Amino acid sequence: MEVVDHKTHNLENGQAAEEEEEVDENANVLQFMDSMDAYLTLIHSLSSNLRQGWLELASARHSMGAYRVNTVLLDHTSHPAATSLLVDEGKEPHFTLCKWGSSGNEKLFLGEEQSSRDKSHPEIRRRGATQLSEEKTTSENKASCEIDDPVQKERSKSLSVFGTLVSPKLRDAQLSFETALETLVEIANRRSEMLCAFDKVNKKSGGSKD
Amino acid sequence: MELFESFKSNAGSTRRRFIRESSKNLLMANRNQIPTSNSALIAMIADEDTVVGFLLAGVGNVDLRRKTNYLIVDSKTTVKQVEDAFKEFTTREDIAVILISQYVANMIRFLVDSYNKPVPAILEIPSKDHPYDPAHDSILSRVKYLFSAESVASGRR
Predict the structure, then answer these.
(1) Looking at chain B, which residue has its C-alpha nearest residue A202?
(2) Going along chain A, which residue ranges are E strands?
(3) Is B97 in the A-facing interface, judged by CB distances under 8 Å?
């Protein structure tokens, strides 16, 4: 009787372990599929951002002249990149974009700045414009202007390679390529997730075959 | 501070030492173009319009040896030049992501497919004249076998 109970107990434990493994495997496969879907969706979004950027660049070239929007004018003197990446090289590398951060200037972290601003200043709809809310909005605008000024300076510096007076289309192209850059960083993160999930699924399937 | 005090009281060699130390400090203060240890660059191997666009977005970097983090590929660029740029960018420690136009990646497909490090990440992007083709993407090629008939059949056994 005791031997039968022991065997039943072992069988139940084995079944539970198998079920847990299957749940983990399903979770890995789901994560892989989700990250692959996100990767493909972001690639599609990137294609449309880049197409817009190329079109605006072509318009700028048309209005300013081909000799003014040219790689010959590029600055080959030593200078650091204004936009860079922060890399968290763990098991799954994570990339964060730092836009328009140069020596001494405040760096704009993609997503973090916006999310912290959203959390601290949630938008409340009011029927009447009270003095308090007006004061708050002006102070928020001042803060955002302070952050935007160094960013605008860096943007202008980047545009100044092509002359002092540039076409509005060139500015639009700059913004389109900035958006494309944000999408690319997201793609890089989805790529890391996908490869990590793929390795896990591969390990499991390799183990089950043995 | 101690140096300044000794400068006031003594002359000659101390004064010269003060001037030397001050100028060294000024030079160090102006060396603010060295990137922090955490920040990394985005490299590009693409056509002119794509490179110009991303340079407008502030990605361009030129170091003291006048080495850039981009290669503009045109009709005169050889496969060897593209290969050398790819090898250089993948071995540089200050580069985290390499953007490469897919049609350029096709020129060195064997090199791109054999690369399997997580950083720098290789991202294949479309170009003006060559739209993105998922069938050629090296990452998707690596994982597509999961969806093949053989892998599905082996999973069912």
Answers:
(1) B146
(2) 84-88, 94-99, 108-109
(3) yes
Residues in chain B: 157
Residues 6+ apart with CB under 8 A from B41: A81, A84, A85, B35, B59, B61, B69, B94, B95, B96
Q: Is B54 on the interface with A (CB under 8 A)?
A: yes
Each residue's pLDDT tens digit, A115-149: 444 444 444 444 554 555 555 555 555 555 555 68
pTM greater than 0.95 (yes/no) = no
CB-based contact B56 A158, cutoff 8 Å? yes
| DSSP codes, A1-50 | -HHHHHHHHHHHHHHHHHHHHHHHHHHHHHHHHHHHHHHHHHHHHHHHHH
Structure tokens at B131: 């739209």
ipTM of the predicted structure?
A: 0.73
pLDDT tens digits along A154-180: 888 888 888 878 889 999 999 999 999
CA of B108 vs chain A CAs: smallest distance (Å) = 21
Least Cα distance to A81 among B72, B29, B42 occurs for B42
List residues bridging with A108 in a β-sheet: A99
Contacts of A76 in chain B (CB under 8 A): 62, 66, 68
